[in-house]
Amino acid sequence: MADAGQATSPLPRRGSSRSRKRIKVTRACDACKARKKACTGDIPCRFCARSDLSCSYNVPYHRGSAATPLPSSQGGNVRPIPAASIPALMESTPVPESVLGGQYRGPASAHSFLDRAVRNFHGAQRTLDSTSEDSHASIFSHGDRHAPQIPESQLQWPSQAAVNWLVQRYFDFASPTYRILHQGTVEEWINLVFGQEVPTPPSHTTRLSLAGKAIILMMCAISCSFSALQDMPLEYTLGNIPRGQQSETYYQMADRLLSQEQGSPSLESVQARFLTVLYLLGTSRMNQAWFNFGPTVQLLMALGLHRRNTYTRTLNSSSPGEVALECSKRVLWCSFTLDEYLSLILGRPRLLREEDIDQDYPALVNDEQLDPHKSRSHLQRNCLMDAPVCHAKLSKILSKASQDLYTIQPLEKEQEIILIENLVRKVKQWQSDLPPLLGDWVCPSSLISIFQRQLTVIRLARFHALMFVTRPLLLRDYSQEKEASEDSAQVYLRSCISNARDTLELVLELVKDRLLYPAFWYTQYIAFNALSIVYIFLIHTKRGRIPHAWLSANADLESQEIDQNSLYKLAEETQYHLGQATERNSLAWRYNIVLEALRSETTGHASETTNDAEQSIGRTQPDHDSHLAVQPMDMRDNVPFELASEHPIVDWDSLQGAGAYDSGIGSLFTFTGSTDELCLDFWPQLDRLPTSLN
């Protein structure tokens, strides 16, 4: 009998069939495990030796103690393993796979392919006990895009004219639904900073609090990140500082001011920190944004902004009473909305719970109606606060969906359909309650900039909510015998694909209007959701898991026919533009790494495991483990879909040095039984995968 701590007994002679039956292999190598091949359990194993593959045992093992693979007489391509690292394989097994890069990644721990993808997308092995190449980064920003270093001499305030321009840009474009400030109050603050009789540097003036100054600087930083180079007048730039670094200059100045705050917190303290979170999200620093958001929520709750009786307390604000009260409601519900999206993107629990909040929504009034110095007009105008309130209400539905639909415990299929029906009904009711300006019949180009932005954000939010609610149905296998709930599943599955298609079309409209800025983290996240849904839908349709009859137009379903070729072309073009509106290691850059793997699986190339492909990768990536078939990212030849896209796929080789995707993504779609468990865990893991790539 084989010893429990030994991977395999000595190999028998070829003629002894009885001896061969006694072989007990407790652990397969990574290559055999990925290909579902029989493994001899030694290193290199028989399959890897014959195929000239690198034989390794790096995938975490969770079925007892990991046995150390014994040396084989086969010879072959064996990756050198230091002696000290072999026991580490055994010691690392108890570490749950829901921890990536030392950070928790969600409620479920079955990472399977996704954990392997994280370790292989960049061509380097990730060990659970190793330090990252980004070891000098703060623990609060580990894995984020590096910020440019701004010299001390460049930390200077912009001119008053530049501040006025940037603040106006902020209110007119950069804050569609996260409107936490009162414009009249901010303009008064600017006059306090710059309007002194004796010229004083803005950083030295004491007429405005540190948080108030930080708010002005953060508005300038956000506006710069949302401004194209040709938008900002040349005279408003900071001397010799590159325009791309101006926003970071303002952010670092604001961060310094906030670190110097003393005494009791104020409403402005919360507002300033909320703006830093938005800026960090727009500059692809997701982890730092999340860690900054924590103290923001704590200050918010310490001030009691989540309770309705806050008006009886002092907000310690420099704003007038009614303005301060409305701004406190605004920052609360904007935080509630942002909290939900951060939770979905990062796969972490919410910080604000709905049951702890009894505060009213902000009043549906424009800023000038709150200004005590101006007479209020009785003429009803379109309200800028409609969109923020509607967005907060939709985030409540998303929160409910996260709690009820994406659970750790498996759901029965009928129960899942009932939940989806209820959630879709709530989204439809929310949509019917939208004000006319945010309805489907309004053409965005006919609106002024801020209303156009609000309409776009609300539409994206609705598309995302419907995709989020219905996408679990995409992982079912409908090729089996008909289920009782199949008709409902067909309706909601088509709704999922239709909303994904509408999302991609809307993103391309932004491209056409030159409005897809790198700082659009929200648009990029929803585009990633839509693209992943489209690719997975095409994969499952190709494999027969979704009947082709479901793609035909059906009058009862009130939806048009789903054409696979058109859908693929739309996805490919959107992915191209998503890659163009990005910088290295930005969030969109990471989205494209994952999307390229899905796209290649869609076209059928990811399953190819020829020696030529492996040798090609061996030449471009000498240090990359080849236990999974890895091929170059640009796979446009021999695509089964009829492609006529006017844009090429982004050349990730030039961006990454040696771009490669984990072709083992195919194993994620190799189902051997019930897929209910995968439905629960696949989508949350896919959402958070890009932020896990370092």
Textual characterization of the structure:
By secondary structure, this protein is an all-alpha fold. Helices cover 48% and strands 1% of the residues. The protein has helices at residues 17-21, 30-35, 46-51, 85-91, 112-120, 160-174, 183-194, 210-225, 243-259, 267-282, 286-302, 321-346, 367-370, 386-404, 413-432, 449-470, 486-512, 521-542, 564-580, 587-603, 611-620, 652-656, 676-692; strands at 99-100, 103-104. Strand 1 and strand 2 form a beta hairpin. The two termini are 44 Å apart. Keywords: DNA-binding, Membrane, Metal-binding, Nucleus, Transcription, Transcription regulation, Transmembrane, Transmembrane helix.
Descriptive labels:
single chain, 694 residues, mainly alpha, two-stranded antiparallel ribbon, 2 strands, 48% helix, disordered N terminus
Draw up the topology in text.
Blueprint: H1 17-21, H2 30-35, H3 46-51, H4 85-91, E1 99-100, E2 103-104, H5 112-120, H6 160-174, H7 183-194, H8 210-225, H9 243-259, H10 267-282, H11 286-302, H12 321-346, H13 367-370, H14 386-404, H15 413-432, H16 449-470, H17 486-512, H18 521-542, H19 564-580, H20 587-603, H21 611-620, H22 652-656, H23 676-692
Antiparallel strand pairs: 1-2
Helix pairs in contact: 6-7, 6-8, 7-8, 8-9, 8-10, 9-10, 10-11, 10-12, 11-12, 12-14, 14-15, 14-16, 15-16, 16-17, 16-18, 17-18, 17-19, 18-19, 18-20, 19-20
